[in-house]
Each structure stands twice: as C-alpha cells, then as structure tokens.
Amino acid sequence: MFNINDKEEIIIQDQKIRVYSSFYTKPNLIFEKLLNTKPSFHKKNPQTYNGKKFLDLRHNDHMKELEDMIDYFEDLVGERCNHKKKNFTTNMQKWFRDPFNDYKNNYWWPHRDYGYTLLIYLNEEPHNGLNLYQDNDYFFQEQTKYHEHIKPWHSKKHYELLKCFKTPFNTAVLFPAQVFLHGCAVNNDFYFDRFRLSQAIFFEDM
Q1: CA torsion sign, 145 to 195 to 159 to 114?
Q2: Among the CATH numbers 3.90.320, 2.60.120, 1.10.3210, 1.10.357, which is that of 7-204?
Q3: Span 110-134, mean pLDDT?
Q4: Are 66 and 1 in contact (CB under 8 A)?
Q5: Confidence class for position 44, pLDDT limits 50, 70, 90
C-alpha cells in the first residue's frame, strides 16, 4: 500500500523532515475512496467566508487499507494517530477569483498541529505544496485573535519562510507540525479553477 524506500531526509532547525516520493503503490485506491465519500465543510460556520470566497472542505471516513501504514508511522514518531476511527481525512480547497485571495502578498493561515503530521499530496501541480515558517510574535499576539475562515490570509511581511516543499503527485511529507508554523503554499492561481487535494494524518502524544 505504501512505499518508504524513495525517501529524502531534510534537517531544518535540528528537526528531521522526511519526504517520500511515489508514496502509495496503488494511489487509485485513494481516488476510489474519494469518489465514494462526500466532503463536508471544514469548521462549518455560515458567518465565515468559507463557501463565499473560497472552499475549505474535508473528507472524513475510514479505510481499512490505511491501518498498517498508520501503525508504521505511529511506531516511527512515537505518537498515536488521533483520528483512527476516521483515518481517511483530507484537505480539499479551492480559492475564488476575488481580491480577497491575494496570494501574492499574503500567506494562507500559518498554524501548528498537535504533533507530527503526515501529508500526502494528490495533485499534478507541484509548486503549491507545504510552507514552513519561522516562529514569530505576530502569530501569538495577532493571528490567534482571528477565526481561520474570517482572516485566513496574513501578510508575508509578518512571516519568514523557512522552506517551501514542492510536492509532485503522490509525494508524502512527515514533519513535526507542533514545532513548525506551517500552511499550504499558494504560489499561483492554479487552484482557483480546480481543487487542491491532500490527505492528512495527524499524530499526537496520547
């Protein structure tokens, strides 16, 4: 189901990040699941801009085929997947052509997760992958005042980009998401006309 042999290890600020190429041996199984699972709005709230200026959707379901893979990465990072009952979780996003979505001057929602995160990218466009950012006071003092879907864009002047990972189709990135501020890279308007799709597996100390 998964391939860990085509791997590159990158050290950033003494943290090891693993990038796997050709991750799924049978990615068609993932797409079959996508076709049969209806996405829902992420953090659904009619008072936000989700559904008005962009779409931020999720698939939340279970795939038995993912269980061995998740067990392997739990042992690797020493943490547990925190959504095993719904182990098939995605990020499905599209931005509308609106001045609100000023990707040239802003970054999309830098944030942290609870532990390690494994992201598997399922798009042909490689340049809009994963951004990692330097810690800063703006995140703690200003950004945290806002709802993710009311002010998702934040000026590039507030964030120092440490690394943008390019992610060709079927690339997986495992990184300590509780350590690094991170977010999806929006470097062009490719996903203004089609959906950006990644699968996410979240780990944390349990």
Answers
A1: positive
A2: 2.60.120
A3: 96
A4: yes
A5: confident
